[in-house]
Amino acid sequence: MNSGLRIFLMVLPVAVAAEDAVRLPEFGVNSPRISNQVPVGTFAMPVSALRYDPRVDLHGRNLAEAQADVTVRGGIFENTGFQVGAVTLGDPQTGHYFAEIPIAPAMLTAPVLTTGADLALGAANATAGAIAQHWRPIRSGGSISAALGTDGLVRGEVHAGAALAEAFGGRGLWADVAVAHSSADGSLPYGESRFDRANVRLQARDARSQTDLFAGYQAKFFGWPNLYTPFNSNETENLQTVLIALNHRATFGSGEFVEAGAFHRRHRDDYAFNRFAPVGPVHPFQHTTWLTGAALSARRSWGEWFVNARAEAAADRLRSTALTFGRFNTRTTGRLAIVPERTWRAADGGANRLRLGATYDDSNRDRAALLPVAEWTRDFAGGALRQVRLGFAGSSQIPTYTALNSNGAAGLFRGNANLGRQISRNGELAAVVAAGGWTGEAALFARRDTALVDWTFRRGVTARTANAVDLETAGAEVVARREWSRGEVVLGYTALTKDPDYRGAAADASFYALNYARHRLTAAVTLRLTPEFTLRLDNVLQRQAANLLRTVGGDRAFLTGAGLAYRPAAWRGTEFSVQAENLWSETFQAVPAVPAAKRQVAVGVTRVW
Known about the structure:
Layout: H1 3-11, E1 57-61, E2 67-71, E3 80-84, E4 87-89, E5 112-114, H2 116-120, E6 129-133, E7 141-149, E8 153-166, E9 172-184, E10 193-205, E11 209-225, E12 234-251, E13 257-272, E14 285-302, E15 305-320, E16 330-345, E17 351-363, E18 369-379, E19 385-397, H3 401-405, E20 413-414, E21 422-435, E22 438-457, E23 464-484, E24 487-501, E25 509-510, E26 517-528, E27 533-544, E28 556-566, E29 574-581, E30 600-608
Parallel strand pairs: 3-6, 20-23
Antiparallel strand pairs: 1-2, 3-4, 5-6, 7-8, 7-30, 8-9, 9-10, 10-11, 11-12, 12-13, 13-14, 14-15, 15-16, 16-17, 17-18, 18-19, 19-21, 21-22, 22-23, 22-25, 23-24, 24-26, 26-27, 27-28, 28-29, 29-30
């Protein structure tokens, strides 16, 4: 396809003429920043809402829902946290499984990216940013969807909710369930997948509070050549994740709230480097982790001040056939954040807000870290400039067991039992603008990571090695949005630069810390062609930093996801669709040495009631 047509697809929305608004049936929105809410190759997962997101660079293997590293502002896969309700979800074995969250997106609100001071008051064990979601109120109704596609794709999903009865204290009692399945042969040989998920949730709520009790299970099997290693091997993953969670949130006047939660997560991983090797009764890479935690967040008034506070504690445990070379396989962690806040009204009707505080992270296996949080915000009452924000925040993270407990002298993954707590210091200047029908936010940021754990490659050594790197990252990002009566567009641009210091370690290439887009431009376009037809386009144009591990596809890519939906007026609540992922069959390797999935196409039908 010629470059002119590709650029046309990114700028197409500016030609949309304003016409009368079109009323459409209600369909689920997993993210307001992307157009195609449902992926092509499988059913939707929480990570699906991050595909093509202007502020998130998602590095996928096979499908994004199979295995995806979620990076924010030039961080790596283990720098991004995931918060659901009050608690931080993660995986102590490896950050590759942080996004293994067995929850149907229909049960969650749209994801919000937190950085700086908001990150300090949110997810634990994250340094670049975090994806935060809340439990969505249950409604009576549901949806059912099914699709067929290329490479033998079959997928289906059901979600239904209902009011049960009146609970204690006049609160309503609700319940919802969700079941999903998909299977496919894969767009490359030995790239098949089989995914299943089952969820059940009880919810008690009134006008000011909501309590959710959730249980979920997800099983995923998938294969891919060079899934984690650059050695031309057909690898497989077999994952089972169980999550039980309890969450309660109560809101008060003036933005005050209290939220508490607890969870237990078990994750099993059976990884095969060579799916055809005779491995006997026990595979060489079998891991099970248990993670149990609780958290409490609150915002309460105290005279002329508000106090923002958060406390979180977690305990983990590892059982592994391979990760046996470290100093420990159990760990407890704790975190406390206290950030007082005060607002002063300005003469022009705007306001100044100041947040000053600190976070304290500790663990029974690592040294503690006390880090500052400071943020000044100026809100303006009128004009194009709506807000200016200047902030500085420290954060910290501890290494996962794959880095700590892998054999440091042999094997495919070589760890270092002496790796310790990573410290990150983040500065940000941001502005919010609204003009000419557009709303947008721009930010300049700089981050210094000390002792960041990266995985590096050295010529002549058949392994990747966990090394500590001191890394300086600077960048700029812009996100802008506009809606017309017949369409909408979300544009994004990010520029990054990095300066690494591997402390004398031999590193010819980096799989993660130096795998980043120097320039990344996104465009999510929704066009309502007629009252019944809607065209959806998600586009990413990027130029990646050079990396000798990237063997195919070069350092530039143009990726497009496209969908055409038909919602017949006579069948309200029904949508027929055809979708394509990687429309141009780009060969760009999002993770160096990992082959890209080819074009995938699916036709489907969804019924909402």
